[in-house]
Structures are given as C-alpha cells and as structure tokens.
TrEMBL record:
Protein name stated in the entry: MoxR family ATPase
GO molecular function ontology, one term from the record: ATP binding
Family: Belongs to the MoxR family.
Record-annotated ChlI/MoxR AAA lid domain positions: 261-332
InterPro entries: ATPase_AAA-3, CbbQ/NirQ/NorQ/GpvN, ChlI/MoxR_AAA_lid, P-loop_NTPase
Top-rank taxon, per record: Bacteria
SUPFAM superfamilies: P-loop containing nucleoside triphosphate hydrolases (SSF52540)
Pfam families per record: AAA_3 (PF07726), AAA_lid_2 (PF17863)
Length: 342
C-alpha cells in the first residue's frame, strides 16, 4: 500500500513521474541530506539535547516555513538558533519584542539624508535569513502585524515600493508558555502562518549535568567560534528540490485529510485545522520522509509531524480546557482513532 503513486498521472504510465530525480539530482539530494544530517552534530557542540527541536527547525527551513518556539526562558532557544545559523552559514538577527517596539523597528524605515536631501531606506532586522523574534507576545498587534506581513509576503513595502527579503527567510518566534499577563496573544488566523510550533523542553537530569560539565570546562555561550558551517543555502535549495520529488500515495494524502477533518469534528475543539493546515502537514511529512532517506511519505511520517504541525492550528473549547485537555492530548486521541493506511 505504501508504494509510491504519482498523483498527477496514471500510475501505469512508462514515463518517469514528473517529480522523479535525474542521476545528477539524486547525487545532489544525497549530498544535501548528508550535510543537513551533519548539522545535528554541529549544533550539539553548544546545545545538549533538544534533538527534536533541531529536526523541526531543519524541516521548517526545507519547507521555507516559520516556527513558533515555545519554552520557558533559559532553555537554550537563543543559543540553538544562533548555533544553527552559524552551522548553516546563514545571516542571523534577533529582535526583542517589547511593548514599545514600532513596526519600523522590525521592517525598516525611511531616513532623511541631509547631504543628498533625500529619503533613504534603512533595512530593519527582518532583512536576514534567520530572524529570532523573541517574545513576540509582548508587542502590540500593530508591530506583530508588520512581522507577520513580512513573513507571509517575503517582502517589505515602503512608500509603495516592495523590497524582497533574503532567501531563505525564516522567522523563529518565541513564546513563553506561562506568561500571559500583559501580553498580546497572536490571533488564530495569524498562528496558521507558522508552519510548526515546537516545544522546547527543560533538559533531562543527565542532559543538564552534561551542560554544567561543559560550562565547568570553560564553554562560553557567547563564543561560537568552534561551530563550523557544515551546510548552507545551496544544500537547503537542493534539499528543497528533492523534497518536491518525494512521492505521495493517494492513501497517505487521504490520511492527512482524515486527520484534519477529525479535528473539525472533535467535541473538545472549537476550531479545527484549516485546509492550509492540511497542506502544511503534507509539506512537513514530506520533508521528514526525505530527511529520513526515503522518496515516499509513510503514514508514520504524518504521525510524527502531526503534533508540531497542527497543535497551534486547533483551539480548545473553554470547557475542555478547564477539564485539563491540551491540544497535544486531543491530537494524540485523534491519531489513535483515525485509521491509518497500511
Ligand atoms: N540544552 C542546553 N544545552 C546547553 N546549554 C544550555 C542548555 N539549556 C540551557 N543552557 C544554558 O543556558 C543559557 C541560556 O540559554 P538561552 O539560549 O539564552 O535561553 P532562552 O533563549 O531559551 O532563554 C545558555 O547560554 C546555556 O549556557
Ligand atoms: Mg533567549
């Protein structure tokens, strides 16, 4: 049942499916996969553990998607993104979202130049590859909207002219799960624009001990000179091309849809996953299939990516929330009930 079926053409046609890779592209795909897999080891030079967060970030980069990072302060979110950008040889910027941050502080603004008597555009921090948007909930909606617009359109409009953002451009926005007072939660329609929501756990006891030992041995989180670029924009582009060629069986596509439909019918949810969410789950599952060394998506790929891709796209009913339900819990129930193709 898992044999790849090309959805565009009849499966019985002799010509290779349009997504099939040439010998050359196959080699590039292998090289890119090896480089992106080596990232894990490079990031591990500074960050202990957090493997699934690193994988989630690589998947987001492959899908050109943005990331919500949820975790309490001090769990190495900043260190992780900084290390990753260095290991990928990508430009990195960080913005602390404060209550008084203005849209222009994010996107850039026109500055009057006295010498030329002209206005000149000074690029804001969104003009980067990896943007760490720290504590996005602390800034009022108008500034959030300027970032979300840049995320969606991959450009910034100033006085009617559009300026393209670099490629790749991926935003990692952090949220503190326990701090809701005096914050501005992102509206549901905006949450849908993040490809995945990754939760950054507190390290295990052993991981925390390993971290302390590194610090005792002289590790300085401000000095990342040991981290080498092991992949870059070229590998990401090759990876992206290879992901586009990953086959999707019609039954697996139906499984993605059935999972999303089940969220719309769940009595615990007042808002289910949108069709946009279904496309997101397909994209992340495909990227994960490729990273795992396959050229077809399995139901297990879909299961593995369902929680990170869907958890921020559903909304609990207040009653369910009061009873202690969580988005992950509801999704887990749905995953165990919706029959998967074999
Ligand atoms: N898993 C970890 N591995 C290595 N260092 C860690 C880890 N978790 C926390 N730390 C240490 O805690 C510091 C704070 O991390 P930081 O990246 O500023 O956290 P956050 O951005 O999540 O608030 C790091 O610089 C590092 O020294
Ligand atoms: Mg931080």
């Amino acid at each position: 049942m898992n044999h790849p079926v090309d959805l565009g053409k009849g499966a019985e046609s002799d010509t290779p499916p349009p997504g099939a890779l040439s010998e050359d592209a196959r080699r590039q795909s292998e090289t890119a996969r090896a480089a992106l897999t080596a990232l894990r080891g490079e990031v591990a030079k500074t960050v202990v553990g957090q493997d699934s967060v690193v994988t989630g970030l690589v998947i987001a980069l492959l899908c050109r998607g943005h990331v919500l990072l949820e975790g309490v302060p001090g769990t190495a979110k900043t260190l992780l993104i900084k290390t990753l950008s260095r290991a990928l040889d990508l430009d990195f910027k960080r913005v602390q979202f404060t209550p008084d941050l203005m849209p222009g502080d994010v996107t850039g603004s026109l500055i009057y130049d006295n010498r030329t008597s002209e206005f000149e555009f000074r690029e804001g921090p969104v003009f980067t590859n990896l943007l760490l948007a720290d504590e996005i909930n602390r800034t009022p909606p108008k500034t959030q909207a300027s970032l979300l617009e840049a995320m969606e359109e991959r450009q910034v409009s100033v006085e009617g002219s559009a300026r393209a953002l670099p490629d790749p451009f991926v935003v990692c926005a952090t949220q503190n799960p326990i701090e809701y007072e005096g914050t501005y939660p992102l509206p549901e329609a905006q949450l849908d624009r993040f490809l995945v929501k990754l939760t950054v756990p507190v390290p295990t006891r052993d991981e925390e001990i390993a971290m302390l030992q590194r610090h005792a041995a002289g590790f300085d989180p401000r000095d990342l000179s040991e981290v080498q670029p092991v992949a870059g924009a070229a590998e990401l582009a090759a990876g992206r091309a290879a992901v586009r060629a990953v086959h999707l069986d019609q039954l697996v596509a139906a499984y993605v849809v059935d999972l999303c439909r089940a969220t719309r019918q769940s009595p615990s949810l007042q808002l289910g996953v949108s069709p946009r969410g279904a496309t997101a789950l397909l994209a992340t599952s495909r990227a994960w299939a490729w990273l795992s060394g396959r050229d077809y998506v399995t139901p297990d790929d879909v299961k593995a990516l369902a929680r990170p891709t869907l958890r921020h796209r559903v909304q609990l009913r207040p009653e369910a929330e009061l009873e202690g339900a969580t988005a992950d819990g509801v999704l887990e129930g749905i995953l165990s009930h919706v029959p998967a193709p074999r």
